[in-house]
Structures are given as C-alpha cells and as structure tokens.
Specification:
Length: 132
C-alpha cells in the first residue's frame, strides 16, 4: 500500500473530526458528491452509501477503526483508502491517506483532499480560538 500525507498546522483532534464527519466528505473529498449514513460521525462497522462525482451510489463499510487515530473502509466491497492522523505537537499533525495498490491513479485525488482538509482544519482551529 502506498501513502500520501501532509503536515497540517492544526490540532490532531480537529483533523480527526473532519475525517470522520460524513457531512465534511463532499467538501474535502474530490470523488464524493453526497453521503447517506445512519449517523454523521462514522464508527467501527458503520455501513452507508456515497454518491460519486459522476452520480453513482455505492455502498461503504468502515472496516478498520483506531479511535482518534485511523480508519479504513471498503467501497462497493472493494478495499479503499485508509485515513490516519498522527499528532506532532499541540497544534500540529500529519494526515495520511493509504492508497491501495490497485488505485495508482488515486494519488492526485488524495493530494487534493489533503489540501482541502488542511484548509478546513485551519479554519476550524481559527474559529475555536476566536470563540475563547
């Protein structure tokens, strides 16, 4: 499995929340248009559906789960990306996408997603500071 990652100047818990919130997926995920799931925050074993950018609805299942750290899934019963957040200090983290060998073309999608996640985490971190 290959991976792409990005160091983000925001707390790991902020990045984690964005990664597990299905309402965020269409915002940061270039290949996701919509999500139907029983709850907005994913967890181990959750099932749902995503709508791809071309309009196709596909089932998903969360297959691996490490709280506050990592999750992976299957989409249409095919191993898909893994997602990982590693804290690098109080206001810094590394977000990693693990890309299955069968999807070498997916690097650019994950790079775009990482840029969008960075934008979302920085905005959330700024909002949290302004509320204090």
């Amino acid at each position: 499995m290959r991976h792409v990652d990005r160091i983000i100047d925001a707390p790991a818990d902020v990045a984690w929340r964005i990664l597990i919130d299905t309402r965020e997926w269409p915002i940061w995920g270039p290949s996701v248009r919509a999500v139907e799931a029983p709850a907005s925050l994913i967890g181990p074993g959750m099932h749902g559906r995503i709508q791809t950018r071309i309009g196709l609805w596909l089932p998903f299942e969360i297959t691996d789960w490490e709280p506050q750290r990592a999750w992976a899934w299957r989409v249409a019963d095919i191993e898909a990306t893994g997602h990982r957040v590693d804290p690098l200090g109080p206001g810094r983290c590394r977000v990693t996408f693990e890309i299955p060998r069968w999807a070498p073309f997916y690097d650019w999608v994950c790079q775009a997603a990482l840029r969008r996640i960075e934008e979302r985490t920085r905005a959330r971190a700024r909002d949290a500071k302004s509320v204090r």
